[in-house]
Amino acid sequence: MTKITTEKHLYFRRAVKWLSYKLHGPRHGVPPKTWMRLGRTNVIDFHGEFRRVDGLGLGLPIVLVVKNEKKSMAMINQRRVYRDVERQGKMQELLVPLRSSIEHGFVAVLKVANKTIGGRYVWLKKGLEPRGFAQSGSSVFIAFANEIHIVDGENGVTIKVIKHPKFRAIHTLAFNPWDKNRLLVANTGLNSILEVDLEKEDITWEWDAFSHGYAENPFGLKVIPKGKPIGRDLRVISHDEAIAKMKRGKIEAPTGKDLAVEINLETLPHPLGLEKWQNTAAPNYANYGARPDQIFATLFFADQAVVIDKNSGNVKVVRDDLKHPHGMLVFGDDYVVSDTRHGQVLLLDQNFTLKKVYDFSGMPHEEKSEGGYSESGEWLQYTNPINNGNLLATVDSYRSVLLIWDPARKVYSQYPLDKDWIVLVNRKNDMRNQETRE
Prior knowledge:
- Helices cover 13% and strands 39% of the residues.
- By secondary structure, the chain is mostly beta strands.
- Among the domains are: 53-163 and 415-438, Beta Barrel (Thrombin, subunit H), CATH 2.40.10; 172-340, no CATH class.
- The strands form seven sheets. A five-stranded mixed β-sheet has the order 1-24-23-22-21.
- A hairpin with a 4-residue loop joins β11 and β12.
- The longest helix has 18 residues, at 7-24.
């Protein structure tokens, strides 16, 4: 049968996706807000409009960051709970407790091999829940849960470990282009972004979301860190009372005062930091912008991509129609943002205007074993430029594949990933002459 690709047909398909989204939520379809803003022509159906080819990106060096190597019972049980509360909406999802354990993962330097990812590595480094990766010269910096490990980029041997009491659930690392002694840390577990002086191993700048417009969670509950002033218009309640009220839905204060809870960031019981209902923004990505006073970030629970003024801490929201986004990375003259739960990659111009949406939600998939993202629907991790910015690499955790794609030529190659892994991928451009090993 001939494939119909007329504009009328594409418009009809996108209308069906929009209706599916309205009926079934983020598991299916194009987010209506994005679809309506772009109109007919700029939402690109990746499955329908891209052609699959063999060997795209073959031989390129990449860094594979596997947050969880094997799914524990704690993770499987948590995914079961997520599945059960999904139909109740985002707010009930926030009441799911943090996992009872921190998982083991690894970081591996490798080259893209034919038909597979993994198995042959330049080096591999294991640790607790790695997420962040950055490189400066021959040294590699890895964020393992609540520590930053500096390792030799040639062989992966640990040189030094940086610890700080404020490190909780570190997600990304980025070097200051104007001062290589400064490292930017997305400190997700404490709802903050930190800049660290690597010589002094101390924090030189901090942005906390609570103080910059993100003091209220989706239930309408104010979250106040201990030591911060509590306004007269607030009534502080206990955590148990707060949870009981949130289980009933949106909080309405009968006294005319907004309800608040106080949290002590220095004595949080969980090693990964704040519970989800306390973590009002959850910055999961931070990097320097085009100027020293500019920070790019994505806020996982606030569902936003933002630009932060480093001097004032003020926030400019550049996208507010996302669902658990990851990253805002430079791609040529533009930026790419992974709109994770919508299954899309957004292309923004230098003014952060939406140019294109690459919609992956129509890609075929098969159900996986329990504990993976397939139970929660679409899940695109970071989209990273590779091959000197000519290609993009996207981890599709819903389908357990790494997609390397060329948006200019509309072609892609697909490499399977171990279905037990929860994966991020990072580019690496200076490993071309290193040998791989089993």
